């Protein structure tokens, strides 16, 4: 039987420290499909040995990571006899994350099994701040909330209703409900996190969370954006790295030498707050040297309409 090549042998051979006496398998190129997972048709009937060599009947249940708004795909490995989640791993068939997650994804299991996790609605009893809460049923909680909201709406006190949700995963639907009720008080994690970025995206592109085609880009410009640090960037980071492997150049504007800046082809350590000025200077240079993709600008940027709106009495020119 052929003996296995251990990792020291493998590393030494790759570094050229020892001659290659045996053929080493080629490394899987980054970005290739993940292969080491059961076929999709078998996800509800997986059998595997646990660490005690006990055979477990498992089901791989697709779910979504909500630890940031990248919303990567996960698979919960459920022991169907114990009805218990045994582990959580990346979903290789998810089109965004493609089975690759940051460490927070698999760590979701800690949240599921946290002994202090609140599993049902709690109603405060006693004075606010005293910490007196009693568990109540979902029906009781919903009845009470509905009664309170109804009373406020019927007495024209719409501005006393505030809807707050941690990680909004139902955008659109709840927005419509609140609008139908005439309520403006919608607060989320996003309100205090990415609101300014999203506002800029919305005003510029008409959509608050664009996903550029990094994979097919030739030059990727990152403004204080850290693809090594997770968040939205897990699905993006994979594609940025793939683009870089195909020859794309990465330019980073960032006051600090982040890990991303360290990997960039060009790092421009801007003073905080001056990124806009740098971009305007780049734009000016592109215009002066006629290095603009005119058909793209014509198709995608209504700058004449924008200038006419901004300065209706003047000719639409950038001068
Ligand atoms: S990047 Fe990490 S935390 Fe964010 S959704 Fe993906 S796995 Fe979860």
Would you kindly provide a written description of the structure presented here, covering whatever features stand out?
With 319 residues, this protein is of the alpha/beta class. The protein has ten helices and eleven strands. The protein has helices spanning 7-14, 108-112, 138-154, 173-181, 195-205, 233-245, 259-263, 275-288, 294-300, 303-310; strands at residues 46-49, 55-64, 73-79, 84-90, 122-124, 133-135, 163-165, 186-188, 219-223, 249-253, 266-268. The chain has a four-stranded antiparallel beta sheet, with no helix packed on it. A three-stranded parallel beta sheet has the order 9-10-11. A two-stranded antiparallel ribbon has the order 5-6. It is flat, with a radius of gyration of 27 Å. 12% of the residues are buried. Bound molecules: iron/sulfur cluster (SF4). The site of iron/sulfur cluster (SF4) has 13 residues, from loops.
